[in-house]
Specification:
By secondary structure, the protein is α+β, with helices and mostly antiparallel strands. It has a domain of about 90 residues. It is built from 2 helices and 6 strands. Strands 1, 2, 3, 4, 5 and 6 form a 6-stranded antiparallel β-sheet that branches. Strand 4 and strand 5 form a beta hairpin. The radius of gyration is 38 Å and the shape is rod-shaped.
Length: about 150
């Protein structure tokens, strides 16, 4: 009787194992889907990182162009003061560039060939301080020069 019970227990265990082995058909599909989902999440994260880097580099480019436009305005005023017949402006006036540099109370942005622009403002006269504002694609950068 004991042998019969033992054999019956082995038979039940065998049937249970064979049922478990036969129910493994969907597990490979489930593991594959989980692995592919993980790979997709990593790829989307990397793509997001690349796109944000591209946006930042575009902003840096616009900022650099605006800065160099401001530098160009400052250099043009210095050139006109040194070599031209321009004697400067009063406090709070803007420099108007044309055939000869003159002064005006309104800003007169000068547009460059790359569509950036600059305007130059006399901040103080003693000591001389000028502010050149460069702009490009809604980005503005300011360069201030001061000297005795």
């Amino acid at each position: 009787m004991r042998i019969y019970k033992f054999m019956r227990i082995l038979q039940i265990a065998n049937n249970t194992n064979s049922r478990i082995k036969n129910n493994n058909h969907g597990s490979a599909l489930l593991i594959t889907v989980l692995i592919l989902t993980s790979i997709l999440a990593v790829a989307l994260g990397a793509a997001n990182l690349v796109v944000s880097g591209i946006k930042m580099s575009g902003g840096q480019e616009r900022s650099t162009i605006a800065y160099f436009a401001a530098e160009a305005g400052a250099e043009r005023v210095l050139w006109n003061l040194h070599y031209g017949d321009f004697s400067g402006c009063n406090l709070g006036e803007y420099v108007k560039f044309g055939a000869a540099a003159t002064c005006d109370t309104n800003p007169n942005p000068e547009t460059l060939s790359n569509n950036s622009s600059y305007s130059v403002y006399y901040k103080s006269t003693t000591p001389l301080a000028i502010t050149s504002t460069g702009g490009f694609a809604n980005v503005k950068r300011i360069v201030e020069l001061g000297f005795d």
